[in-house]
Amino acid sequence: MFRKEIILPILTFVCIVIIWELITRYSGWSHQVFPSPLSVLLSLQELASNGNLLKHSVASLFRVSMGFALAVILGLPIGIVLGLSKTAKYLFNPLFQFLRPISPLAWIPLAMLWFGIGDLPAVFLIFLSSFFPMVVSTSTAVESIKPTFFQVAANFNFSRYETITKIVMPAIIPEVTTALRITITIAWLVVVAAEMIAVQSGLGYMILDSRNALRMDYVMVGMIVIGIIGLLLDLIMQLLGNIESTAWGRLSK
Amino acid sequence: MGTIVKIMSHIHIKNLNKSYLDRSPNTANKKDHRISVLENVNLEFEDGEMVCILGPSGCGKSTLLKMIAGFEKPTSGEVLIDGQPIEGPRSDNIFVFQHSGLLPWMTVWENVELGVRHLTDTEKKKSRIKEHINMVELTGFEYHYPHQLSGGMLRRAELARALAVNPNTLIMDEPFSGLDFLTHMKIREEVVNMHELIKKTTLVVTHDIDDALIMGDRIIVMSDRPAQVKLEQKLDCGRPRNLGEDKELKVLRDEIFFMLGVSYAV
Q1: Nearest CA in chain A to B98
Q2: At what angle do helices A52-84 and A203-212 cross, to 10 degrees?
Q3: Is residue B18 assigned to a domain?
Q4: Could you tell me if residue B149 is inside a domain?
Q5: Which among A148, A155, A246 is the nearest to B91, CB-wise?
Q6: Is CATH 1.10.3720.10 the classification given to domain A38-247?
Q7: Phi, psi torsion values for B44, nearest 5 degrees
Q8: Which residues does chain B have with pLDDT short of 70?
Q9: Which of A82, A187, B153, B232 sits at a 20 to 30 Å CA gap from B264?
Q10: Which residue of chain B has the CA closest to A165?
Q11: How many domains does chain B have?
């Protein structure tokens, strides 16, 4: 049971906590500036038991799922169309390539003006952060489908609809699951930033609010929870890529 | 008025030419520099015939097959099937791909089902799929995905899928390439037996002269690019054939080897 891939990561984290403890003990920094591991742990327990942590996590997760889901629902079909049609590609690809490198955070002023205060601007920013990578990776995946598969489709008299459901969609599953993994990570990065401006809830808001109250222990609790949830989101997406029907993608390449 | 009985060959290739725009760097800026792949090919295949097409690699054999399948359009000339010019790929004209054409996200069963998916009678559909999977001895592997099958099994599965459609023509592009020696022999034997059984027009492109001599009702040897028909030879001897004992086949074999640039046949 003493397996390297389990023992070594734990060892790293243990070392980090020990170094952290040593710094807070001997660096001379006050606990207000650099809280010790133990005080962060106690704060974590406090925030968890009074329900604040859950409330903020749920708020953040809600915004991420809304924005992310919207990006996937719109991004996948648009990506497929761009991948299949040269006309659509030349019409819209330059626009998407142009908008893609603009950080979603640059949209904050406009998002607040357009959508006011509340969940909407945050959802909008997350949507922007996920939509463009989704479109681009989907269309690239469609373009890289082996021509043989389209020839098979033509040979067996597939309709347009069948070509999309039986060839295109299954063929891009491996690339799309990878894209989902990368995109959800970006979305999670953006939600925290988005919550520092327009809302009264969420982990981003919690961090900002704790900073204003000079509670660095709460700030650190926020960071740790963000890290853990981010890991879990990635794990879920990874499991999605492991289900049976997508196994061919990993095994036949 | 008397009825005009037109005796027509099943597949008729008339004055077929195919050339591509040359995109190699040193000729890229010259306009209209075309590489000719096929030049003035005229061939007729009879219904139910097994035709083996031989030629040096890269000579355009596969291009010829792809035009017969409707995947590619001729530059000039035409391919007629039962008198009708071929407009595009169709399901009575099934292509068996050199590198597996099975859809990797579908099981053997689902792949074979592709050709019979429009059958409304579910029981009939099931039995048709079963029958063909059984025919290629893949019973027990119905729910395996292509990546779980060996090279020989992949060929068999694709053959089952092609035959389940009940096509008029079977077009096979190097059906044995990449197989180990024994599997090659076995699958070849199966294709021959299958052909004896169902008598569908079967076109096989191969670079293996022995394959052609063992299988073909007719052998066609193409020249180097641009490919032209160099030799067309009907084989009247029955099957199974024995290359070691049949004198005529041996002579023909040496002749083809010589034609393809090998002086001492192995």
Answers
A1: A148
A2: 130
A3: yes
A4: no
A5: A155
A6: yes
A7: -130, 130
A8: 1-9, 24-32, 264-266
A9: B232
A10: B105
A11: 1
What is the model's pLDDT at position A253? 45
Q: Which two tokens stand for residue A221?
A: 């609790």
ipTM given for this complex:
0.87
Q: How far is CA B24 from CA A123, B33, B98, B247, in A?
A: 49, 10, 25, 46
Look at A148 and B103 and tell me if their CB atoms are within 8 Å: no
Q: What sign does the dihedral B60-B63-B68-B73 (CA atoms) show?
A: negative
**Does A156 reach chain B within 8 Å, measured CB to CB?**
yes
- Structural domain range at position B53: 11-23+33-92+167-259
Give the one of B69, B97, B105 whose C-beta lies nearest to A148's C-beta: B97
Residues paired with A201 in a beta bridge: none
A252 near B CB under 8 A: yes
User: What pLDDT digit, counting tens, does each position of B219-237 carry?
Assistant: 999 888 888 888 888 888 8
Say if the Cβ atoms of A155 and B104 lie within 8 Å. Answer: no
Average pLDDT (A19-34) is: 89
Inter-chain contact B89–A170, Cβ cutoff 8 Å? no
* Predicted local confidence at residue A168, as pLDDT: 95
Does residue A241 sit at the B interface (CB-CB below 8 Å)?
no
pLDDT in tens, A47-83: 999 999 999 999 999 999 999 999 999 999 999 999 9
Q: B194-227: per-residue pLDDT in tens?
A: 898 888 899 999 888 899 999 999 999 988 888 8
Query: How much is the pLDDT for A244?
Result: 59
CB B55 within 8 Å of CB B227: yes
- Taking one residue from A and the other from B, the number of pairs with CB-CB distance under 8 angstroms is 55
Q: Identify the residue among A148, A151, A155 best suited for mutation to test binding to B, counting B beta carbons within 10 A and taking the highest.
A: A155
Nearest Cα residue to B14 out of B38, B39, B41, B37: B41
| Backbone φ, ψ for residue A246 (5° rounding) | -105, 5
Residue B15 phi, psi dihedral angles, 5° rounding: 45, 45
pLDDT at res. B1? 42
Nearest to B17 by CA among B57, B75, B64: B75
Q: Which two tokens stand for residue A31?
A: 């606990």
Chain B nearest C-alpha distance from A195 (Å): 41
Q: Give B61 to chain A, closest Cα distance, Å.
A: 17
pLDDT of A142 reads 96
